[in-house]
């Protein structure tokens, strides 16, 4: 059974800092890994999707890496801003014929002005 | 208008009542999903549908049923609501992709409270 763990559960940083959020998964047989952002009271917004054959994806100040063999992914946020404050979730799409997307519990990020 | 619309956004009901949560999408996606989110438990898949004639149970389908009325509509029903079904419910959609790339588009969520 795939298990996805996100560390830390919460993170508070001053504005302007670079930061890294971590995601680990137990079964390396994955199709892809996605990072989402969730604002309070709202749905999830997809930030980046990394295919199993890829090592990283970039979008603006965000960079996500994937090391499938070690079961790890990181989300790097450069020059953090108060507007980045949200919960960040990673989700792993596991292999096999049946659909299976397993979410981590998220990291609550607070960027202080 | 939102790409994925959920109604109602908030609902308070009593134990034993029948509840329906509705989801409609304008993305033109074939695949639709229902998740619930609980504090400390993350998101868990209830049901998913890859097309109008394809309905599949997720990891926590007991106590729930779904109906895919059209490509754009996917509703979730609680036949007899119980307090531990109090949660935030999300509908999501994605394109059909056999390469494994399933970028999900989520609705804003429906907060259900069962007293």
Question: Could you explain the architecture of this structure?
Answer:
The complex is a heterodimer of chains A (113) and B (115). With 113 residues, chain A is mainly β. Chain A contains no helices and eleven strands. Chain A starts with a strand and ends with a strand. The mean pLDDT of chain A is 92. Chain B has 115 residues and is mainly beta. In chain B, strands 2, 4, 5, 6, 9, 10 and 11 form a seven-stranded mixed sheet that branches. Chain B has a four-stranded antiparallel sheet with strand order 1-3-8-7, with no helix packed on it. In chain B, a hairpin with a 2-residue loop joins β7 and β8. Chain B is globular, with a radius of gyration of 13 Å. Chains A and B meet through β4, β5 and β9 of A and β5 and β10 of B.
Task: Briefly characterize the structure.
With 113 residues, chain A is mostly beta strands. Chain A is 0% helix and 59% strand. Chain A has strands spanning 4-7, 10-14, 19-25, 30-38, 44-51, 56-59, 62-67, 72-77, 86-94, 101-103, 107-112.
Any descriptors?
heterodimer; A: 113 residues; mainly beta; six-stranded mixed sheet; five-stranded antiparallel sheet; globular; B: 115 residues; seven-stranded mixed sheet; four-stranded antiparallel sheet; 0% helix; 56% strand
Helix and strand topology:
The complex is a heterodimer of chains A (113) and B (115).
Chain A lengths: L3 E4 L2 E5 L4 E7 L4 E9 L5 E8 L4 E4 L2 E6 L4 E6 L8 E9 L6 E3 L3 E6 L1
Chain B lengths: L3 E4 L2 E4 L5 E7 L5 E8 L3 E10 L2 E4 L7 E6 L2 E6 L8 E8 L10 E2 L3 E5 L1
Parallel strand pairs in B: 2-11
Antiparallel strand pairs in B: 1-3, 3-8, 4-5, 4-9, 5-6, 7-8, 9-10, 9-11
Helix content of chain B: under 10%
Number of helices of chain B: 0
Largest sheet properties of chain B: 7 strands, mixed
Shape of chain A: globular
Poorly predicted residue ranges of chain B:
none
Q: Work out the helicity level of chain A.
A: under 10%
Using only CA atoms, what is the Rg of chain B?
13 Å
Number of strands of chain A: 11
What is the beta-strand fraction of chain A? over 45%
> What is the structural class of chain A?
mainly beta
Order of helices and strands of chain B: EEEEEEEEEEE
Overall shape of chain B: globular
Q: Main sheet of chain A?
A: 6 strands, mixed
Number of helices of chain A: 0
How many angstroms separate the termini of chain B?
Answer: 32 Å
């Amino acid at each position: 059974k795939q298990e996805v763990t996100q560390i830390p559960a919460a993170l508070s940083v001053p504005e302007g800092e670079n930061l890294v959020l971590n995601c680990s998964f137990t079964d390396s047989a994955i199709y892809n890994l996605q990072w989402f952002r969730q604002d309070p009271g709202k749905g999830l917004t997809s930030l980046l999707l990394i295919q199993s054959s890829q090592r990283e994806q970039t979008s603006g100040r965000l960079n996500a890496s994937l090391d499938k063999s070690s079961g790890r992914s990181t989300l790097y946020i450069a020059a953090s801003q108060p507007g980045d404050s949200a919960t960040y979730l990673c989700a792993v799409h596991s292999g096999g014929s049946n659909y299976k997307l397993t979410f981590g519990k998220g990291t609550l990020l607070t960027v202080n002005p | 208008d939102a790409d994925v619309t959920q109604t109602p956004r908030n609902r308070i009901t009593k134990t034993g009542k029948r509840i329906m949560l509705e989801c409609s999408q304008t993305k033109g996606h074939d695949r639709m999903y229902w998740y619930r989110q609980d504090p400390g438990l993350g998101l868990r898949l209830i049901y998913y549908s890859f097309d109008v004639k394809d309905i599949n149970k997720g990891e926590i389908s007991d106590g729930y049923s779904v109906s895919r009325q059209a490509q754009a509509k996917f509703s979730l029903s609680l036949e007899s609501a119980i307090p531990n079904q109090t949660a935030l419910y999300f509908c999501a959609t994605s394109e059909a992709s056999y390469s494994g790339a399933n970028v999900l588009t989520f609705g804003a969520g429906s907060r259900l409270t069962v007293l």
